[in-house]
Design goal:
With about 325 residues, this protein is α+β, with helices and mostly antiparallel strands. Helices cover about 15% and strands about 30% of the residues. It has 2 domains: about 5-165, no CATH class; about 175-300, Cyclophilin-like (Cyclophilin), CATH 2.40.100.10. Strands 13-20-17-18-15-14-21 form a 7-stranded mixed β-barrel. Helix 1 (about 35-45) runs parallel beside helix 5.
């Protein structure tokens, strides 16, 4: 056993990038809420991007290490201390056996991630498709078979220089009157927008929506001016990022642990590259949707993957 959970925010869980291929059986993909913020710490400690991490939220996470390990943290803004001494986010840090790492969320963002060299391992070494909660006193193992490693050796002298910038490309923000910050989220049009007159829907959809306190790993409810519609539709497949409109007339943005089918009208789909940005918008904050084309969505997805690959290659050259 390598890491002992001392204290955690709710919910906290072990997550990787989820599991595909089982949606036909009603099993959701699951996985981390913000892939960018999980991938970068993994790469910093020599893991593949999809290696298992601890995902946590407010108020934070405290863990005790039962063996020496290289670690990195990323995601929501937080203060991080190691045995009381402050350390930086987005860098590789060596932790000696017996040390206590404390992470306290104190700024922008909702979800944060702790990665360890080798990655955390599951009892069945399989993908986690929904919430895999951790509790105080739980001890987690670090994989030692190299399955989640990039294959590069960890040079202690160079590892201390491993740093990265937090995700930037999908953290677009615009300013409204009065200096209010609005998060700009790119979307593709949904299948059911034709249920409303074009001008009516366009005028309604351009408003800034406020993220409700009713949010979790399944979905985020949004608040604003409602657009009611009384209609019955057959259920159809939905995925993380699907924006549904329930009878209340206020949107729900589905998240990583969402159901596999739904019967509400689908008005938009958050593009893959912006799923993490949407997940990091906290309760009470504003979002505004920007419609883009499929070509623009593909280009953003490719840039995201290229950024990961460039970081992976760059870090490997420095080790």
């Amino acid at each position: 056993m390598a890491v002992e959970i001392v204290q955690f925010g709710a919910p906290a869980s072990l997550q990787n990038f989820g599991q595909t291929g089982l949606r036909a059986y009603g099993v959701t993909v699951g996985g981390v809420m913000d892939k960018d913020s999980a991938a970068i710490p993994n790469l910093l400690v020599g893991n593949e991007v999809e290696a298992a991490v601890i995902e946590f939220t407010q108020p934070g996470l405290t863990v005790r290490f039962l063996q020496d390990a290289w670690v990195a943290v990323g995601g929501a803004q937080m203060s991080v201390t190691l045995d009381g001494s402050e350390i930086s986010m987005w860098r590789a840090v060596f932790v000696e056996r017996g040390c206590v790492l404390r992470c306290a969320l104190n700024g922008d963002g909702v979800w944060a991630y702790l990665a360890v060299a080798g990655g955390f391992c599951f009892a069945n070494d399989g993908a986690i498709t929904s919430d895999r909660g951790v509790v105080s006193g739980m001890r987690l193992s670090i994989a030692t078979d190299g399955h989640h490693s990039t294959g590069t050796s960890l040079n202690p002298k160079r590892m201390t220089q491993m740093r990265a910038q937090p995700p930037q490309r999908n953290r677009q923000r615009i300013q409204r009157d009065g200096g209010t910050t609005v998060h700009l989220i790119r979307v593709l049009p949904g299948e059911h927008v034709s249920l409303w007159p074009t001008a009516l829907f366009a005028d309604w959809f351009k408003q800034p929506f406020r993220v409700s306190h009713q949010r979790n790993r399944i979905g985020y409810r949004l608040e604003g001016k409602p657009l009611p519609l009384n209609t019955n539709l057959p259920s159809q497949p939905v995925v993380a990022g699907t924006v549904q409109l329930p009878p209340s007339g206020l949107p729900i943005v589905l998240q990583a642990d969402c159901q596999t089918i739904g019967g509400y009208p689908v008005i938009a789909h958050v593009i893959e590259a912006d799923l993490g940005a949407m997940a990091q918008v906290g309760a009470g904050q504003l979002v505004c949707f920007q419609e883009v084309t499929m070509e623009m969505a593909r280009a953003a997805w490719m840039r995201q993957r290229m950024d990961w690959q460039q970081l992976k290659v760059g870090l490997a050259c420095c080790r």
